[in-house]
Amino acid sequence: MLRVRSLLFVAAVVNVVVVVVVVVVVIVVVVVVVVVVVVVVVVVVVVVVVVAAAAVVVGVAAVVVVVVAFDVAVFAVFAVAGHLLIDWLVVHLQCSPTVRRGIYFSIPGASACSCVFLFALCL
């Protein structure tokens, strides 16, 4: 009978040890899975933020390029138009040098165009 009791005690101890080991293994596996999921989520969030930031930078750069190109085109058109208008007036009116200088400052359209032309040259 004593032998049976000692065998039962050993079996109970083994059962407790097995249960403790299984519980510890399950806890470790759950912790590892949670850590892996958190790391994956953090990496995905960082990648999304970096890609979004890059897209914003590229978008802003594209807008700046388009705006600058438009400004340059507008100033170029006004500069050429102003210069051609003044040249046309000088040729068709067959002005003397004194009158030519007067055209640049006396005719409102010509002086406005010449101002735009000079402003475009300064850019």
TrEMBL record:
The chain crosses the membrane at residues 7-33, 39-65, 72-91, 103-122. The keyword Transmembrane applies. Keywords: Membrane, Transmembrane, Transmembrane helix. This is Uncharacterized protein.
